[in-house]
Write a structure and sequence with these properties.
430 residues, Adenylosuccinate Synthetase, Chain A, domain 3, Adenylosuccinate Synthetase, subunit A, domain 2, four-stranded mixed β-sheet, globular
Length: 430
Amino acid sequence: MPLTILVGAQWGDEGKGRIVDWLSGQADIVARYNGGDNAGHTVTVGSQTFKLHLIPSGVINPRPAGVLGNGMVINPETLLNEMAMLKAAGIDVSPERLHVSHAAHLITPAHRALDLAQERARGQSKIGTTGRGIGPAYTDKSSRRGLRMEEMLNPQAFASRMASHLEETNHVLKALYGTEALDVDKLVRDYAAYAEKLAPYVRDVSDLLTRALADGKNVLAEGAQGTLLDLDHGTYPFVTSSSPTAPGALVGLGLGIMNVARVIGATKAFQTRVGEGPFPTEAAGSVAEHLRGTGSNPWDEFGTTTGRPRRVGWLDSVLLRYAVRVNGLTELVLTKLDILSGLETLRICTAYRSAGKVYSDLPYGPADLAPFEPVYEELPGWQEILSDVRRRQDLPAAARAYLARVEALAGIPIRLVTVGAERSQAVESS
């Protein structure tokens, strides 16, 4: 029963979409298990670049079916727009190929309005949310008043529930935040139209996936965000509202633990994050400019969803080892090795120092990194362009040494290295 789980081993944006596209050639089903349209996965195939926020990026490959799991929160307008974009590109997104869990929760304009109002109210203590309504949607789910996809199958009852949801939120928006009320009648009509279009896609995906695994089919679970944004195990409170870690895949798809065959962690050759929160190895000056890029290329370090410039820095092996532990990673995929070309000297954080003590692992996890400063190891860089390399042994000696050091520090092998944005620009380890 071959279930492969792909997770981000950093703060998200590790290039998981690209890796899912690579792995989907051997998958029968690709299933997204957490988050909402605050996530962004980019896949480049030839001259085409696809930016997806909800639909599993594996559907760009014609082989696998796509699943949106119960662990997700779904903005139906975003989902329908993505479906239209893919259909226009000739990609099959019919109800026979794309399936949405009946138990996934909906994001509404009320959630987005609350998200923006709450972030403004935080002032200097803001978290750095995307404003997409993710947190409020998960709050409604946890407090047992959320709207689920299955409710769209009963138009009359759904309209009533939607109206009550919007009216309750309007009261909060006006009384607590002093913001303008939402147009209840218009939004009820909008969501009734979305429900009519999406109803054919709704099904019990737990049953679908369990049967597929029992039949020996290959299922790839696609995570959004990254380990360090996990609600429980990340840099709290600067985290997302779901569980991007590997165990979250089982909960977010309705699968048992006996199904897992591989757990792959995606990590960049350096470190990035979007938004607020701690970042011990953050770089500045010319190094940051080199790692980030200018924004003129699709692969530069600017958010797929937000467009915000990402914070960049050196690879942090303390946090990488933490990701290996909490996910049970069996292997790594290292992306963007090509971006390091041209730097004379590279640095890797191998430990932290605080109050005269050196730590190779974090006490109490990464929630509070303020007391720690990174301990760096320096390695020689390389000048060669890597975009045409396809075998590890053909990489420059300094690049091979860098990969070997990352493997030693992480304690698991690197199975795939990307050296460019296009699908074929990858180096598989023998």
